[in-house]
Input
Amino acid sequence: MELKGSNFSDFLKPSQVVYDLKAKDKIQAIEELLDVLHKQKLIKNKKPILTRIIDRERLESTAIGHGVALPHARVDTGQDIAVVVGRSAAGIDFDSIDRKEVHIIILIVWNPSI
Output
């Protein structure tokens, strides 16, 4: 079996980068980023994905420290992988392990059946 190599840039286009998130909290930020994926037609229905990501965040925050969070979910997207990146100049409380606000959010959704 031959594995196909991929680069992050294969999944992240300029239209999937939000340079100035309007969100004031974690859930608003996730919703704002999912809106981008929906508008790009990379996901069909954001509500179940939002629920899955929020459930995941309740288990343990995906904020890894140094101002970065990696919210993610495995759902049937119809695509291989969908990525969106958001930047918050003000920072968002994401329950980070280092207790600092998050400024970069990399949201990833992928289809586990592909």
User: Anything to note?
Assistant: The two ends are 15 Å apart (CA to CA).
